[in-house]
Write a structure and sequence with these properties.
- The structure holds 2 protein chains of 2 kinds.
- By secondary structure, chain A is mainly alpha-helical.
- Helices cover 75% and strands 0% of the residues of chain A.
- Chain A contains 12 helices and no strands.
- In chain A, helix 4 packs parallel to helix 12 and helix 7 (157-183) runs antiparallel to helix 9 (199-235).
- Chain A is elongated, with a radius of gyration of 23 Å.
- Chain B has a two-stranded antiparallel ribbon with strand order 1-2.
- In chain B, a hairpin with a 4-residue loop joins strand 1 and strand 2 (89-90).
- In chain B, helix 7 crosses helix 8 (180-214), helix 8 (180-214) packs across helix 10 and helix 11 (272-281) packs antiparallel against helix 12.
- The longest helix of chain B is centred in the last third of the chain and has 39 residues, at 229-267.
- The radius of gyration of chain B is 24 Å and the shape is globular.
- The two termini of chain B are 17 Å apart.
- The chains are: A mainly alpha, B mainly alpha.
Chain lengths: 301, 325
């Protein structure tokens, strides 16, 4: 068999890719905090999916006869001043957080990757225009922009997702652009270009796989950020509105001094839930970065 | 140095224009008649239909979008931010009343946060893998993940409700005269909340930057020459670690503003953040745009200051070897 045999070459590439992937996986599994993060996230996801089977109450049913009840066997986490069952709202609130986190990041990845790829690959005035746009959005505090846009389109679960996505894509675009700027000068791009591969195929088939590592690390951190942003918005009363359950709007009730002091079971569980999901996702992000980024041989906290 | 600063200022001008276009776009998407946010509501309520139509024409609201944008921008340059529909007040008056408390809160928090973050980061780096390092790393990781409003509520619960040692709302105690002690007591919790968030981020980056510098050859050289370790740390290592640290401080400024929005609502601090939330929940477009433009300009100006500091910290930047980090 000669080295010029295409079948041989491609099997070699696949094997190489496989070992790289397995190497990264092994490094990830060895990252203790990342595994803890995966376990916490999996547990929260399971609770969210199985929510209807874990509680007899719906998250949006209010029972005016049982308000401000301390935890008991019927209400494991008690009830709030409106008569909502806190345990049910914590479970269904997990759905809100996960939908916002993953939904917003999915949209933001699409926009950010498309624009970043265009800017980085083509350069020139396209790059200038997209660059100024990302600079503008990045120079503003995201929370403030989200507040403005939510107040214009009206607060709802959908608008929160779309608005968070619209304001977080610039970070992804900037990352992708930087990677493409470096990659487009590499020799393998010249090589495939000589063979006559189209721009679209170069961008998506040949270059995109090269940046999946840093992109997935960034996406993980952005998911945590999106969940925090939703919680903060709902806490301020500008995000997901009751009766739709959200951990943020549950904690919002504690802005009332009496609830804060006398009914800790209404706000401590959702507050802990927000902190643990964000911590878990950040741990996973740290693990992914250490596993995928060959330069990060230093262990970072 | 002069041309360097001039270049940085020129670069931020298109960004500022971008912000006004974004703000104007958002303003025109807002529900309601744009006239209500351009005119004194009291006057408007006494006007006839023809007068309203002529006012609309005089303000150029019947023109095309680009013309309306230029007219709006012109008004902005003259300090005309329009009327707040909710407060029945000029937006400019509202902004100038709200800006000083926010600036006081944020500069104090920035100073405290930067000091703590840099000190913690250096300590963690020189005692790498000690219990102190682990404790500081745990501190920064958890405060990056725990949302500010949760930390704030716990603070109010502990120091305000349970121990009753600190006031929980406003800038001054009502009816007690506006003494400086009173102001300081009211500032403790909001400033700590903001400073803790900032120092959590900074600790992480300072530690990483210091570790990188401490393993450099010139630090080893300085040590082997027998220099005192304090001098090696401060003059040789920290001086170089300062460059990434300054960049990170600049990058966390928008976070600090976002944190101020939450902090002000939590502690009833009479500043811009609290006003932004009120304006948003009552959908007051002109007021919101005023906030956005003031905050954006503030962020741009501080970015500029950071860029200049960056030039001070790193002579290579001044000489134009690198345009941007």
């Amino acid at each position: 068999m000669t080295t010029g045999d295409p079948a041989w070459a491609s099997s070699q590439v696949v094997q190489e890719h496989d070992t790289l992937f397995r190497l990264a996986l092994r490094r990830f599994v060895r990252h203790r905090l990342a595994i803890i993060g995966v376990a916490i996230l999996a547990a929260i996801a399971a609770l969210a999916v199985l929510a209807p089977f874990l509680t007899p109450f719906s998250a949006e049913d209010l029972d005016l006869l049982s308000i401000r009840l301390p935890p008991s066997s019927t209400h494991p986490l008690g009830t709030d001043p409106l008569g909502f069952d806190v345990w049910s709202r914590v479970l269904f609130g997990a759905r809100t957080s996960l939908v916002v986190g993953f939904g917003a990041v999915a949209i933001s990845l699409m926009i950010g990757t498309l624009l970043g790829v265009t800017a980085g690959f083509y350069g020139g005035w396209i790059d200038q225009v997209i660059g100024r746009l990302t600079d503008t959005i990045l120079s503003l505090p995201a929370l403030l922009l989200v507040i403005v846009f939510v107040s214009i389109v009206g607060p709802s679960l959908q608008s929160v997702i779309v608005v968070i996505a619209l304001l977080t894509w610039p970070g992804i675009a900037r990352l992708v652009r930087g990677q493409y700027l470096a990659l487009r000068e590499s020799e393998f791009v010249t090589a495939v270009r000589v063979v006559g591969v189209t721009d679209g195929a170069i961008i998506f088939r040949h270059l995109l796989p090269n940046i999946l590592g840093p992109l997935s690390v960034a996406a993980t951190f952005y998911t945590a950020q999106a969940i925090l942003l939703e919680a903060a918005l709902s806490f301020l009363g500008l995000g997901v509105k009751p009766p739709t359950p959200s951990w943020g709007n549950m904690v919002n009730q504690a802005q009332n001094a009496a609830t804060l002091q006398l009914l800790p079971w209404t706000w401590v569980p959702p507050a802990l839930a927000i902190a643990s999901i964000v911590l878990a996702i950040n741990f996973i992000g740290d693990g992914l970065r250490d596993a995928l980024d060959p330069r990060s041989n230093v262990r970072r906290g | 140095m002069g041309t360097y600063v001039a270049r940085r200022i020129l670069i931020s001008i298109p960004v500022l224009f971008g912000i006004t276009i974004l703000a104007f776009g958002a303003l025109s998407l807002a529900p309601g008649d744009p006239l209500t946010s351009r005119m004194d509501p009291e006057l408007l309520s006494r006007m006839t239909a023809e007068e309203i139509a002529s006012a609309r024409h005089a303000l150029g609201l019947d023109q095309s979008a680009p013309v309306r944008y230029l007219l709006w921008l012109g008004g902005l340059l003259r300090g005309d931010f329009g009327y707040s529909v909710v407060n029945q007040r000029l937006v400019v008056d509202e902004l100038s009343a709200r800006l000083p408390p926010t600036l006081l809160l944020m500069t104090t928090a920035l100073l405290v946060g930067v000091f703590l973050g840099v000190a913690f980061g250096i300590l963690a780096a020189i005692r790498q893998y000690s219990w102190l390092d682990y404790a500081l790393t745990a501190f920064s990781t958890s405060f990056i993940a725990i949302p500010g409003f949760v930390v704030g509520l716990v603070m109010i619960y502990l120091f305000g409700a349970a121990l009753k040692i600190l006031p929980t709302t406003g800038m001054f105690t009502l009816g007690k005269g506006n003494s400086l002690d009173d102001l300081a007591a009211h500032m403790v919790m909001p400033v700590s909340l903001l400073a803790v968030g900032l120092s959590a981020q900074l600790t992480r980056y300072t530690r990483a930057a210091m570790l990188e510098v401490l393993s450099a050859d010139y630090v080893t050289t300085a040590r082997s020459k027998g220099l005192r370790s304090r001098i090696v740390l401060l003059r040789h290592a920290f001086r170089n670690a300062l460059i990434p640290i300054v960049t990170v401080i600049g990058l966390t400024l928008p976070d600090l503003v976002a944190g101020a929005v939450i902090t002000e609502s939590l502690f009833g601090w009479p500043g811009m953040g609290q006003m932004a939330v009120k304006a948003a929940s009552s959908r007051d477009p002109a007021l919101l745009m005023g906030v956005i433009i003031v905050v954006a300009s503030a962020v741009l100006i501080s970015n500029l200051v950071v860029d200049v500091l960056y030039g001070v910290a790193d002579p290579r930047v001044r000489l134009g070897a690198r345009a941007r980090a």
